Structures are given as C-alpha cells and as structure tokens.
Amino acid sequence: MTETGWRVVVLTVYPGVARFTTDALRRLGHEPVAVVGARSKAASTGMETIDEDTQLEGSAVTIASSPAAVASVAAAFRPEFLLTWSFPWRLSPELLSMPPLGSINYHPSLLPRHRGPNPLGWTIRAGDSDFGVTWHRMAPEYDSGPILAQESTPVLEEDAAHEVYMRLCRLGLRMLPGVLERVAAGDPGEPQPSEGATQAPAFGEDYASIDWTNTARFVHDQVRAWSFTPGTGSVSGPFGDIDGTRYRVLRTTLRPPEPNDRHAVRVECSDGPLWVLERTPGEP
Known about the structure:
Rossmann fold, single chain
C-alpha cells in the first residue's frame, strides 16, 4: 500500500453496498470522499436504493441523472481511484482515464464467463456448479478488463437469492485488501482470455414461460434463475399454468415438502414431480 490514503469515489445504487465498501476503504487507510448513485430504472429492484436523502458518515452522496452526467459528477470530487459495485451504467472512457490509480469493479461471476447485467441468473440457468466473484480493472467494454482477483463458492441446492447475495458480498470484501495491494503496486492484472467468454443479458420472453414437459430439474432451475433477476432489466417471469390458472411461480423444490405444508402444489414434469411452494396469480 501507499503511505497515504487515496481519494476514492464509490459508484453503486445500493445503500448497503455503499456503507460496507466505504467502511472497508477507511479501515484500509483510504478516504472514500463520495458515493455516486444513479437515477435509473435498472436501479428499481424493490430493494432500497440510494437517493438524495441517503446519509453516509464521512462521505458525500450524489446522484447522477444520466450516464453522460457520471463523469462530471465524479470529477467534482477529484478522485484518485474509482470503485464500482452494482452500478447500472457503462463508464465513459473520459471517466475511466480520470483517476491516476485507475478503477476497479466487483462482478459476481467467474469472468470471462457471464459478462453483463445478469450473471447470477445465468449461473443458475447454465447449470454452473459454482458462483464466483471477480475484481477486475475496468475497460470501456462491460466486464472485460484485466482480472485482479477471483474466487468461487458452490451453488447449493436450496440457495435463496438473498443468501447468495450476502455470501458473495462477504467474499468480495475479504478479497478487497489483496486487490488494493495489487493496485498500489501498479499491477495491471491478468488479461481475460477470449476462450470461455459468455454473455449474461437480461432474461427475455424466450425464458419467461414454464413448460411442465421439461424435466423437474430444468423447471426448478428456471424458477431459481428468475429469483436473481431484480435490477437486471429482465421481463417478468416465469409463468406457468397450474390447475387451469396462470401463475407466476416464485419458489419450487425437488424434495417432497413437509406434510403440514398446505400451500405446496405437486406438478408432474417429464421425469417426475416438482413442488410449487410459492406462486401468485398473474399474466406474462
């Protein structure tokens, strides 16, 4: 590390992320001078998002009104370093070239796999065995910059989305000191290989309808994958017919539920049963 701390601007839409990243930066001897949020539809996830009333001890909070405004908003704080974590907009070349120590991004996948806004959903959809966290230097193309650190954690059968989010956040924070040591040393990171690169776009209509003639595992993973889509720009889903009524299916299990679980509905798939644990009436 350098002898003196860096002026850091953090870009995120979530107050929780802002708090734990600014706290971590202070513990590591740096000065998180500001947090920049985004006035974006992509930030509307049903979760609390940063706005003008958000209070952070020791850091200014400001909201960029558009992608074009981010560079001028960040420049006002004279950052020496940028850190992004859950920020919906691509950063301009002007902004990426501004801080002398560069910029890094937290991305919840094992890059170059699942580049884009929906990496966790695609981790489930693709049947991957592991979730991942990658810290990388930022480049003009989404999630394509050199890798500074990368770790994985298993995909567990009954993982709920909020549990995965928190597990990956804790993993990312544990990795951060080593990442900043590499930045301080001027380490450029390892270029991402082109082999194995995949995209993780928002889910569309092609994945929004449940076909019960698929295997139980396929449908279960489809429902689980959708639970990770808030904030990704995906359409609403997935929807399936149960006893002649159209539902949005929110949670399923491959295991027989407890006998007293009166809300569980058994549905036959091509290779056996799947139990729907949570659903709501609706149309795609």
